[in-house]
Each structure stands twice: as structure tokens, then as C-alpha cells.
Amino acid sequence: MQIKISKMALLTMPCFVALSLAACGGSSSHSNSDNFDSVAPSKFSSGSGTPTSPTGLTAPEGDVVKEVEPGYVVLQWLDDEYGTRGSKDPSGLSLHLWDGGCDAKIATTNNGWTDTSITPTDKNEYGPYWKLEINDYSVPGCMNIIVRDENLNKLYDGDQKISWTADDHSVTLSNKQAESYASTEEAYNDKFSASFNPENDASAHWLAKNILVWKNAENYHVRLQFDPEPIEVSDNILTGKFINLTATTLSNELKAAHPNLADFKAFEIPADVKLDNTQIKQLLKGEAL
Question: Which of 87, 156, 213, 222 has its CA 20 to 30 A from that of 231?
Fold first, then answer.
């Protein structure tokens, strides 16, 4: 991977070496500390490993909401950052609904675009969900839908449609596609097994002392893996130490300074990882990926 250092980062760093980043698209088993002082070799799943969400979840079995009360359909929105383990508040989300042309449909719709009354019923680990009454429980149904944030911004760039059968009244949507999925498991595997080409998508930039941005890394956990000696891989074990980077957002100052990178995914070295100049020099002098 190619990594570029901005002038701002150079001013705040004692030394420099070309780095690579390890993107964990799969689950991983870490040592008992994710900080600089972790000394045990760490597990590193290859791209064919089990996909892992931003909060560390793996795919559920089937639907998260398995039991649906007769007369209702349950819509799961797959975004675990809005879930019980995430940092986003789903209470401001709302649905905009209109007829999808099926025999069965959702009985209550909102009154126009500005009506935000159809808010989530609750949330689970995988995100918010809505329990919606339908007019006929015995036949398949569908509904056109837009999931919006508190500012009426679409969470998917376009209109979406949910469809259910007479026997299965649990459906899942995500920001990955327009049509609903038959199960949360299917939606999860599609969303978090996103295609990633290291050669084409591995353009990273170190913009400040603790901030890096990486192209096309929205669904990946990212960490720095480093060792004074050449890093080796044996049975999916990488030698050396590592720092898990935390997903963050770029400040307005950094966006203004680097407008061409404003849409890249940003990561930061966590605040609880205390690196002095000596440790940073050790990190940069060895091999890192």
C-alpha cells in the first residue's frame, strides 16, 4: 500500500517511514490489550475470513427479530453504529412510506415528506427496527420506503422497497442496496463482505499526528501492525505488536486543508494509546503494515 504524509503531519512527527495498514475485514482474536504495549502475536483473518462490523459483531443466524406478532411486519435497519453497541442515536430516524403495489401493505403511512412520526420501535445490537402493522397478514406484501435521519437526509441514496411473504414477516434493509433482504444474516454478509482490492483501494494518507485517512475503507477495521524485525505470517498469525485505529471524522480544518481527501474514511490512534517520541521512533524504524 502507498501512504502519503502531509506537511502538517510531518511537523508533528519525529521521523517518517513508509507504512502499510492492515485492514481486518474479518473477525480477529487479539491479545489482552489493543494498545502499544500488547506483546503477544495477534490473529489476523484473511479477506476470506468471517466479516466483522464496525462494533465487532459477526453475522447473526437468520433474522435478529425472529418472532413477529401476527398482523405486523418487522423492518430491521442494518447499521450497528445505531444499535445498542454503537454511538449513534436512532431516535431521530424516521420512515417515509408509500404504496408498493402489492396486495398486502403497511396500514399506516406518514403524512408527507416532513412528517417524521414513524420512528423506530426499538433497537438491538444490529441497529434500529420498526414494528409496522399491515392490512393483510395472509398474503405477500411490499411497500416503498425511505429511511431518513433527523435532518431528512436519506440513509440510502435513492428509494427502497421492502417485500415480505405470507410466512416470513421479518425483513432487513441496509444502505447497500434498494431491495430488502430475506434475512439480517444475508444483509450482513453482503454489507460487510464488501469487495476490497488492496492494490486499487489502498491509498492512505497520514494527515496529522494521530489522524490517517484511507480510501474505500468504510466497512473495515484498521490497525497498525509493527515489529523491529520483518513481520511474518504463520497460520494467520502476524508477529509483532499492533494498535487498533478508531474510526473518526475529519475536522473542518483538515477537510479545508485536504479537500481531495474529504470523502476518505478517517481513523485515529485512540487517546488511551500513549506514544512518546521514543516509541514512535521505534514504531517507524521497524516494519509496519
Answer: 213
CA distance 132 to 72: 5
Q: What is the pLDDT of residues 34-64, one digit of tens each?
A: 333 333 444 443 333 456 777 878 889 999 9
Q: Give 95's Cβ-side CA count (13 Å radius).
A: 26
Half-sphere exposure of 195 (CA within 13 A, CB side): 3
Among 31, 37, 35, 77, residue whose Cα is nearest residue 272: 35
**Main-chain dihedrals φ then ψ at residue 254, nearest 5 degrees:** -70, -35
Cα-based distances in Å from 275 to 36, 207, 212, 217? 8, 17, 16, 25
Residues 6+ apart with CB under 8 A from 131: 68, 69, 72, 73, 74, 121
pTM exceeds 0.85, yes or no: no
- Cα–Cα distance, 22 to 196 (Å, whole number): 12
Per-residue pLDDT of 60-102, as tens digits, reads: 999 999 899 999 999 999 999 999 999 999 999 999 999 999 9
Nearest alpha carbon to residue 284 among 47, 73, 3: 3
From residue 122, alpha-carbon distances to 21, 61, 82, 108, 131 in Å are: 37, 20, 11, 18, 9
User: In this structure, which amino acid lies at residue 71?
Assistant: G
What's the residue count for the chain?
289
pLDDT higher than threshold 60 for residue 151: yes
Residue 234 has a pLDDT of: 59
CA distance 25 to 7: 30
